[in-house]
UniProtKB/TrEMBL annotation:
InterPro entries: ARM-like, ARM-type_fold, Exportin-1/Importin-b-like, Exportin-T_C, XPOT. It is found in: Cytoplasm; Nucleus. One of its GO terms (molecular function) is tRNA binding. Belongs to the exportin family. It comes from the Eukaryota. Residues 101-248 form the Exportin-1/Importin-beta-like domain. Residues 324-979 form the Exportin-T C-terminal domain. Keywords: Cytoplasm, Nucleus, RNA-binding, Transport, tRNA-binding. This is Exportin-T. One of its GO terms (cellular component) is nuclear pore.
Amino acid sequence: MDSQLVQLLFMPENHQHHTQALEFLHNAHTSPDSWQTFLVTLNTNTPQLDDKIKFVCLQVLENYVKGAYKNATTDSQTLLRQQLSQWMTTISTVEQQEKVFIRNKTAQILALMFVVDYDVRWPTYMSDLLALLRMGPQAADLYLKILKEIDLQLVDRETLLTQAAMDHANRLKDHLRERAVGSMTDSWHDILVQYEKSNPEVVCHCHEIIGSYISWMDITLIANERFVSVLVRHMQDPLLREAAAECLLEVITKGMEPVPKMQLIESLCNVLDSAGLLKPIDDDDSDFLVKLAKLVNGIGCQLIQAWNRMEKKETPSCIAIRDAIENKTVLLLQFLASEYDDVSGAVFDFTRGYIQMFSVHGVLTDVHKGHLENLLFILINKTKYDESYNFDQEGEDEAIFNDYRKSLRSVLRNLSNLLPDLVLKVCHEYIMATLGRWQANNWRDTEASLALLYFLGEAVPAQQGNHFSGPFQLKITTMASMMRLMATCGVSSHTHPAVTLQFFDCVSRYEKFFLLEPQHIAPVAEAYLDHRGIRNPSPRVRSRCSYLFCRFVRCVKHLMVPFIPDIFSQLQPLLVVSTTRSNTSTRDLLLTLDDQLFIYEAASMLVMVNGSSGSTTAATATAASSSNSNSAKCLHMTELLSPVLATAERLAQALPHSTPPQQAVAANVICHCMAITNRTSKGFSSQTTMRTNNCFSLYISATKLFIDCLNLGIERETIGSGVRQFLHRMIVCLEPADMIPLFAAASQTLLLTPSLHHLTEYLPLINQLASKAKSLCSEFMKSILSHLVYSVFAAVNSPADGSDEDDARQRRYLQRYYYALFTTLASHDLAPVLTTLDQQLLDQILMSVIQGAVEFPDPSAQKSCFITLRHLIKCWAGSDNAPSNFISFLYTQVVPACFLAPLKSTFNLEDATTLQALYESGNCLKTLHDKRGDELINYLRNQYFPTMNLAPHLVNAYLNALVADDKFFRNHLKIFFESVK
């Protein structure tokens, strides 16, 4: 073997030599006898044999064992076994222990040989392996590593094995149980005792092996006085106790019948309790406490699982299991209350199971209620933030606590489902007491009380989302008293951002409280707008409050009319568009671009609820307070938007004369102006539309302005994206007659460079317009459809980069949107547009729809294609205005498609979406039968079905179903295609 070439494998910087070395390694893997050379090299054990060479030798041997070894001759098998035995002896006796990756690779090879040989060619495998142990701790380490790899081969908990592999693994486990398990357990005991002082690492490894193998071994081999006494002793050793605790957890989670499981756990608990081990200890070693908590959690969960499996709950055995669970409640509470969150979180499953036990079967006694109330107090206390939590720069520790708190709330939710009155009562007392003296409290207590108040929104049932209406007057009174105190106690002035955020979140969650007691609206609105909210020193608070203020206004806007002028006087400085910032340069500003959108949205809602008081300046608002006409609303909306539109117009005029960096910034600001205008449209509704409020001209002018910005041809990608988003919203808000001319102007530029990306964004926009405008947009559709279709064909058929997932995804989306467009045209009175197309293009379109119905691997798109065909059949199959050759197209293409698609191997009849596509294919034939009658029946019977070689009874059943009612035919479709498949 060329040692120098092996060394070059680890020198990729020398490309030529590295390639030569890789070729050498490839030949070594593929040559049938090269493994022998590497095997001999491995056992030379010369000083020149460094770790890299050893590892490559082992890799070649591993490759051989995985492949050709299974069919090796007896001589080859004997040679490999003898040489590997020699190698194991070598690495078990050397003074300098081999590197861990060498030992691991050796163990993997021996485990692979075990799987191949143990039941036939090497029945003494385990006894040969056990003989190694007399060589000392290095041999014990290798032995345990091999057992670990064998366990991975036999009980792979992560890989889905084939049935043959599982059967073979089960046979090997049977052989081990018959021949070797007794000797193996003896060896484990010897290792635990022999090395507990001198080599704790090996002992911990042995604990791990016992935990792995116990799942398929006789439990009594481990659950006996000999082993348990050692494990208990190890639980008292700081170096061994974590591994011992994990081992005991594996022992108690072994699958067993309920009563034996309870007896095993109780006997083990008695031993641990007598040794003083089964309780939290005053120890800084939180890692061990976590292991101990997991052990307690496993004990509780296993007992609850055993109790759940008992069918009769009043038998002595079931009562004994329940008593065992009750006896562990104190332990549960102790660990749940631990100062370490990871220790507390380790018993969450036990906690949930304990609560669920009463929810499903149990009758609550006073003792149980006492335990559950104590549990509630612990949960409340554990809700508090740690003093070390870094709100300015949240890292991994903060993320872990946030996850812990979510789990805590989940447990609290389970408890509130069981005892809603108790949870409400205790939380009410805690919240009232804490908020009543919040100035004297630590911020953690204040935040926890507000967090509990927020949580009650999930825990306490609400009447259609309203906690302050419905038949439960006590609940309403209790919730209202907490909200009243929160709104009046001044806690909104707390300086800690966590408290501030929780306050405003509570306001948002219980916004309907302010409909009940509107006197609190003005103070809360003031808190939103001053230094406590939108002007808070914390960017996080400012951003959150911008969003929540918008929500608050949406809920209570009709009650804000008296103080709208004051609100606008505070909003005015925020309603300014900066022309010097881009999407990325928002640091150190009061509001981000997204935050400002929420402020404009809130302002537009206030304008619409009271146009006279909605002026954007306090003076104008006061002067106009007597007017509440639609004209006044339009005036104030114009006042709100005019500065925004003026900014966009000014920037657009300057674009041609600006430098590229300036153009990029200006384009982003113009897009922000579009987004603001877009967001203000949310102030309107189906009752108060743009037209009824005389605002449609304002938004039409804005749309023209933004389209003019696009048509400048500068920063087209950025501005085009903004225009598309803006037009989506304007389709919803404006009348189709107003929008169609604007679309004609925008489409010229949007389709100027019809790339894959541009078409993917443009098609949904046109689809939305066609869905709303219907026949009103027929002339517009005629003007763009040919160009649009040719552009789609060109984009779909352009060369694709097979390695580019984004490109492939965009192509799928484009085809899906293309099919959806024709579904819209066919189903919204726009089919006549298709008849104006060139006949060759129309034929291409129709064939593309057929291809989508049959070939496109997307059931949603297939469904869309069949819907298109059904509407075209409905429109043209009985009409003199149908395109030429359409009837022929129906029989040569549409009818076969209705059968070819469901018969595809990719057409999964068990998938709900695919079934919808199947039903739509049936609807096509149903509609065709309605239009053409017996002509279709005769075609199917005499021409098409004979090509499918169907049995006569299937043909007759299908045709009978086709002429029956829709429901009968629909039910028959799946049966038919399952039979044919």
